[in-house]
């Protein structure tokens, strides 16, 4: 039942033949296929990671750009505010200046009018004085007439104002 | 040649205890050499080879980018064995992958064939298991010499050096024992299993086919033994390479 003979050598030869056939027929193609697929998968994972990194970078860049544009808009707004403030101040100043000019001019006009009126009054007073003097000189006046003249004079003066 | 074919045909007769005791042999005469061949073993080995080659061909043909169930199974087995050899042997794993995987497949299918009544597993014959064991032994020693160099390889038999004269024969015996244990474990398990099945079948006169025994000794024990045989070969190579 247990005997070692030439079958032993034959079995080794059979095994080696089988190993060779299976290597050519199965192991090599399957291992090559698995290696290729593993390589492809690795490449795809790498590509995905790269795309992910790139996307992250893009997001970062976009965030940075957004921040910069926000900053820029803030600067522009501040500048606009400042310009507006300056313009407002300028307008106010101009208005003030104009108002003062108008006041000044008005004052001058008033003063001129007043002085003109004064001059006219003076002239009127002069004329009235002359009249009164004429009247005093030409006729002797009674006390009541005298008083009447004075009242008239005063009345005239009041009318002038 | 006619006698050989007769022997081949007779090897398929319904098995009984008598058939286990008597080996179906054929004497091959080459010159002055009379070479004895166990016909049943050889025929069963060829059947195993044909089954494996056909399965490999079918599996190879079905390889596509999007795997089918069969392809997924083949990929799982091949990549599993690839990972196993890589974990044990590292960068040289692919050189030993065909040997280890073929050992697993060959022994597995051989053991499973023993489950079919009238068929005998090739691993029931010591010539098969010892042949494979010796082949593994030669490969292990060659691998050790190739990896370490002849001087370091020989030095290895004298370690530890303090008791070198005593260690050398012990180490040599240890190496030979590996072949014997490797071969006889498989042979004993498979032959033992088939003998139990035959004895029980004879006792109950084949009235009830002992399915449970076939399942246990054929499939379960056969699978375990095939795995153990190939893993031991892998471990021996890994140990030899240091």
Global Rg of chain A: 61 Å
- Kindly report the average pLDDT value of chain A: 89
- The helix/strand order of chain B is HHEEHHHHHHH
User: What portion of residues of chain B belong to β-strands?
Assistant: under 5%
Question: Helix content range of the residues of chain B, please?
Answer: over 70%
Per DSSP, the total helix count of chain B is 9
Can you tell me the number of structural domains of chain A? 1
**Fraction in helix of chain A:** over 70%
Biggest sheet strand line-up of chain B: 1-2
Count up the helices of chain A: 2
How would you summarize this macromolecular structure in one to three sentences?
The complex is a heterodimer of chains A (161) and B (242). Chain A is mainly alpha-helical.
What does this structure look like?
The complex is a heterodimer of chains A (161) and B (242). Chain A is mainly α and 161 residues long. Chain A has one domain. Chain A has 2 helices and no strands. Chain A has helices at residues 7-138, 143-160. In chain A, helix 1 (7-138) packs antiparallel against helix 2 (143-160). The longest helix of chain A has 132 residues, at 7-138. Chain A starts with 6 loop residues before the first helix and ends with a helix. Chain B is mainly alpha-helical and 242 residues long. In chain B, 74% of the residues lie in helices and 5% in strands. Chain B contains 9 helices and 2 strands, in the order H-H-E-E-H-H-H-H-H-H-H. Chain B has a two-stranded antiparallel ribbon. The mean pLDDT of chain B is 86. Classes of the chains: A mainly alpha (161), B mainly alpha (242). At the A-B interface, helix 1 of A face strand 2, helix 3, helix 4, helix 5 and helix 6 of B.
Task: Give a quick set of tags describing it.
heterodimer; A: 161 residues; mainly alpha; rod-shaped; B: 242 residues; two-stranded antiparallel sheet; 2 strands; globular
